[in-house]
Amino acid sequence: MNPKIIDGKSIAQTLCDDVKQATTAFIAESGIVPRLDVIIVGEDPASRVYVANKQKRAESIGFKGGITRLPVTTSQADLLAAIREKNADPAVHGILVQLPLPAHIDEHLVIQTIAAHKDVDGFHFDNVARLATGTGGGYAPCTPAGCMHLLRTVEPKLDGAHAVVVGRSNIVGKPMGALLLAANCTVTMAHSRTKDLADMCRSADVLVAAVGRPEMLPGDWVKKDAIVIDVGINRTSEGRLVGDVHFDSAIANARAITPVPGGVGPMTIAFLMANTLDAAQKATATQAAA
Prior knowledge:
It is a single chain. This protein is of the alpha/beta class and 290 residues long. Helix content is 44%, strand content 14%. The strands form 3 sheets. The chain has a 5-stranded parallel beta sheet with strand order 5-4-6-7-10. The longest helix has 25 residues, at 265-289. The chain is globular.
């Protein structure tokens, strides 16, 4: 592989191997098997694939758990009841509700119903606040956490780097900015309506693209020797999977760049596994201290 290309698939596998080793040791010491439960509502094909991949990875690491499949007609009340049941079950350490949800269900209410200490996706307000304030002790969303891990494989010390994040979603853009600030970067948050976006991107030592538009950022927007993390995954009219950055032109300028696919994507599931093990460890320590 081109040394400029950040091999997210390989890095994620290494992280999962580490989590598996730690899980084996945890089970041997405590007798408790970490458990990740996933709830999916409806039959969205992409969601079914994502959930199957998460379950497969969890099983390979040694976790218990399973998939609760609910019909698309499931009421909001019934979904919340299913979440509360898992909240109350001490054997369940991580809970994940696959998004998107049907239009008649309030996604934000669903996320906030998950117990914060079991919110291994990192979307609960308690986890968001801990990340934003630097308090610690919570869970960062898995995709931004994976991006930071990839960045540190290229540059372990990011102090003073100018990082530009293109995208302002609650799932990626905003938490990505908080994580970069915590790493002592100077962070600029940008988006599709930012004035002079091209010039802003060209000033970035670290460029994170998470705007959800295929190949929106051309190679001449990339500063020489910048590190480019492309979170986007888009399918073109020809059926190709591409990122938010025009990879073929950007790689000429970048010091290092993530491909699509095979870059950020595998890291999301890897950090979901890491968060689940951490949740099991914390729950076991809390029970032991009680």
